[in-house]
Amino acid sequence: MLSCFVKNAHNLAFSFCSVQNGSKVFKDLVAKYLIGNSHRTTVEMVPSKTMEAEALEVEKGKLAEIKKNLSEEQLEEIIANTAELKRQQAAEDSASDIATIPSLTISDLETKSKEYPIEVLPNYKDSGVTVVKHELSSTSGIVYADVGFDISNVDFEDITLLPLFTRIMMETGAGDLDR
Fold first, then answer.
1. What pTM does this model have?
2. Where is 13: in which H helix or E strand?
3. Nearest of 152, 156, 118 to residue 136 by alpha carbon
4. Does 162 reside within a domain?
5. If we measure between CA atoms, which residue out of 152, 133, 153 comes closest to residue 143?
6. SS3 state of residue 21
7. Is position 11 within any domain?
8. How far is residue 143's CA from residue 133's CA, in Å, rounded to a whole number?
9. Domain count for the chain
10. Please, what is the Cα angle at 174 between 145 and 135, to 5 degrees?
11. b vs e for 39-65, b when ≥16 Cβ sit within 10 Å of the residue's Cβ?
């Protein structure tokens, strides 16, 4: 089962969820929290051939209501502003305006890729987990981590649940543990 979550942000070494002696972590978690969960929601989606027309009618009604409450001067101002906006959008940009747009040339790009030394730590902190790590410069204190799990114990028919499980793991908070 899941025995620990150890985070050492100083050297970016992570040990996520030690797995003890072939435990079926994914199968157990999916069974407990997804399949065995008593909470249910059924969403039935039915296409509508008239939805677009109905939405347009609602929008036309709202616009007619707004227009009804505008004075003649306000209406003329909106028409004039719209015409001016269309004119500005259609106009060509001046050379001085184009010159203010930042641009890169080939000489601005580094021709040599950066090498990051990789360190492989088998059985990290006696957890049974192999950690592969490397230092990143200038991350502004943000930790970038990719986590991989051995899924060889997941039954073939349960493999289709892995994308759902992955999404849940990435989008669900961990309470006080994610600080």
1. 0.32
2. strand 13-16
3. 118
4. yes
5. 133
6. coil
7. yes
8. 12
9. 1
10. 15
11. eeeeeeeeeeeeeeeeeeeeeeeeeee
Q: Cα–Cα distance between 169 and 149 in angstroms, integer?
A: 13
Position 125 pLDDT exceeds 80? yes
| Size of the chain in residues | 179
CA proximity to 126, closest of 18, 21, 24, 22: 18
- Supply 129's token pair: 């987990």
Host domain of residue 28: 5-36+116-172
Give the mean model confidence (pLDDT) for residues 7-26. Answer: 44
Residue type, 148: G
Give the rounded percent of residues in the chain with a pLDDT score beyond 70: 82
- Position 175 scores a pLDDT of 64
HSE (side-chain half, CA atoms, 13 Å) at 7: 9
Residue-by-residue DSSP string for 94-113: PHHHHHTS----GGGS-SSP
